[in-house]
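Predict the holo structure. Ligand: 3-isopropylmalic acid.
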Amino acid sequence: MSNQPSHRVAVIGGDGIGPEVTAAALEVVAAVGIRLDTKEFDLGAARYLHDGFVLDDATLEELRGFEAILLGAIGPAIGDTRIAGGVLERGLLLRMRFGLDLYINYRPFRGVEGSLAEGCEFAIVRENTEGPYAGEGGVLRYGTPQEVATQGSVNTRFGVERCVRYAFMRASQLERQKLTLVHKTNVLTFAGDLWRRVVAEVGESFPDVEVDYQHVDAACIYMVETPERYGVIVTDNLFGDILSDLAGAVTGGIGFAASANLNPERTGASLFEPVHGAAHDIAGTKKANPLAAVSSAALMLEHVGESDAAQRIARAVADFEGDVTSLGTDGVIIQLQESL
Ligand code: IPM
Ligand code: MN
């Protein structure tokens, strides 16, 4: 194993439980015999509060050169008002997604024992660089009774098509080849029509994939009542954000939910992060659930071409049976290492 090439990975532990869960994930990667050449980047709320730095062009360019970025969690403690909303979200996380053209947010879910969606496996493919997140809009007459705030949703044929194509590719790899478009075509008629046409057109190249459509409000009911109906869900940036939190909740909690911000063409480093936040209240107590970070690391290994190792980790996570709360972070990692 020692003559195996190592992969260059940037690690952004971030805030709260972020550094603990990324460290735990890296232990599991090491245990599966994969060598990583890591470089840590001190970014996030703590760094911002320390010296005002969020992310500059030079650092973004340096990050681009890695094979992958593993991120823990970013954000101040709840109630800490020293950082205005959006500073870190737009300045750091979204800047990496946009700047590195990470146009897919791939979020796989597996319903753990006792969850509403126990035994169900499905994935959300969320468009990650357009929609309302593109930042189109502005404010007029700020603070006056005549204030105007607009916030547009950007949907380009190029952006929708590459996202939908990726989603079909993923769906075609499933045993049950099914793709569900989620949108709100009855109200958001312009964007909705574009998404529908693109799904129909791209679908012609994937004749074995069954295609379904749901309005986003109905999808919220179905995801709770009949989550077994899904294979791959494809949707826009904002619907995907909301729906993936719901998916996390019905499959056992976002403590288990992994995500991959992908640039499938590899023109920039892809970014792997648990869906959960920084949970400052339990930071340092060894209570954090590392499984989402571990699963994110498995997605990272898949991306860098280490499929066997990725599958071994994914299987160990799927077979994991202990009680996370009583085992604690270290106990979970020991159990995973034993079943690798
Ligand atoms: C997520 C998060 C982010 C998003 C926030 C932190 C900007 O909620 O990754 O789902 O909205 O995409
Ligand atoms: Mn979210």
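The pocket of manganese (II) ion (ligand 2) is lined by residues 241, 245 (CB under 6 Å). The mean pLDDT is 96.
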